[in-house]
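Can't attach files on this board, so I'm pasting raw text. These are the components:
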Amino acid sequence: MSDFFVNILKPVIDNIEKYSDRNAFCIDGVFFKYADFGKTISKIRQEVKKIGKDVTRIGVVGNDDLETYASFFALWLENKYYVPLSPMEPIDRCLQMINQFSVTIILDSSHLSVYPENLIVPTNQLVFSKIDLEYENRGSEDDLVYILFTSGSTGIPKAVPTSRKNLLIFIESMVNEAYELTFEDKCLQCNNLNFDGSVLSYLYPLLFGASIYTVPHDQIVYSYIYGLLENHQLTTAFIAPSTIRYLRPYFNEIYLPALNYCALGGEGLSLDLLNEWAKCIPNAIIDNIYGPTEFTIYCIFARYNRSDISVNKAYNGIFHIGKPFIQTKILIADSENNEVPLGVHGELCLSGGQLTQGYLNDDEKNATSFFSKKGIRYYKTGDICFVDEEGDIMFVGRIDSQVQIYGYRVELGEIEYYARKLLNGLNVYVTAIENCIGNMEIVLFIESGPIDTNSLDTKLRQLLQGYMVPRQICFVSQFPLNNNGKIDKKKLIASLKGESTINEVA
Amino acid sequence: MIMQKKEIIQTLTLIFRGTFGQPTLDLRDDLTANDVENWDSLTHMLLITNIENQFGFKFKLKDLNKMKQVGDMITLIESKLDIHPL
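---
Top answer:
Structure tokens for the assembled complex are below.
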């Protein structure tokens, strides 16, 4: 029998007993054993049991502590699911999300919670009384395990539900086709809990009895990650390429022979960067992994060839994404959703057991992002790709106004929406450009003479995630227009690079 | 000539103010990334580059993790300048 309880919860619960004396987590330098993890899950579960059976959607503040990770399992054992609320995200945005999606209870391990007292269960104050890890398979495989939010152009994030079945099929595919761990593995977890890469980084190791090393939120991420990898001789890591790019100036100091497996994903991976990084991790299998949140963590991957680097294919310098998992079906489609011939560019569409049921409360977006063909339901990724003669998928670029910033998918329209609102309707245009180290960053163009933007910056920080707040603001008295009367984006961007003189840069 | 600690702090203050766009920011030994708005991985990298360019040395990657607060940064800069006096 293959189901979420048997294949995901049971192995973790069994490991809590089997490896009780081994480390499950290293959080901010403090080690917690599997036994500690079991106790923490149990004490939180006691409180979760007091929540009515009909209340299944529960917020969890995504702190970097044992209570937060234990909360996910306490909820799953009680047939509930989590909505992560990032402590780094503006509280107004989080409150908007919990109202929008009817979250009425929040498990919060913060010392000083920013949420209304009547909503929270303070998980850091609970006292352990007894082990309570028995599980009983109730509900259905379509029941949810978590909801994550992705950027939306209406100012309201899109809520992506992931089911037990979605997660189970991902785990099965990862085990069978990508990489298995052992209880001796030491695994990096550097992903924010509202990004589904975090599920790969915390859940996967627990299935094998391995140890997880997390990155505290108040640390400078790239240097801390390096410290963990080297000092603790970590063996596996899932990292975004932009983090690796931060480390690039120091590659000549980095030598990590203990790293056995490194997955890179969340954004386009430059082959040049990959070739250099591979030398720093001489013994690691390296996978470039691809997948949207709507298709549960990842579903396509390409393995880097170390023995003959000339066979590593790239398009426009971006390493290919390889082939899908066996249970994933891809379609490269034209604008009418018809399959294009081999080698022709089209939108990558995905079908299979990892596919989400659809955005919550968003019929309009569901109608445009999903379609059925010959009885098969597909998700339109918004990524332009093509398949080469060997069946490998080459990534070309984004079809729409979404970009990847530090591994997060950002809808530029969402930033424009708020900027326009805060500037009393001034015309704005938001784009992302490569900065000095090759990472993408947000630039805001305002159609106006120079104005004071300090309060705009402050207010945007209250409304948007930090990585979405524009790093540069440019004033342009009149936006250049192209022949169709639309904003000439190329000219605007060229002006930023000093190739034209139409704007004044703030 | 070896740079005095006071001068290091003065120079560093200007670098901080410029990097984080806060013209009135003052440095304390116990100041950390949590205390300064916009101090994240990207601005940290810019800060490091600005310090390296201004003082004329390169930090090692291992140095970066030693700098938990501004006081650590000042001590580290002092030690680097002792080895390579201006």
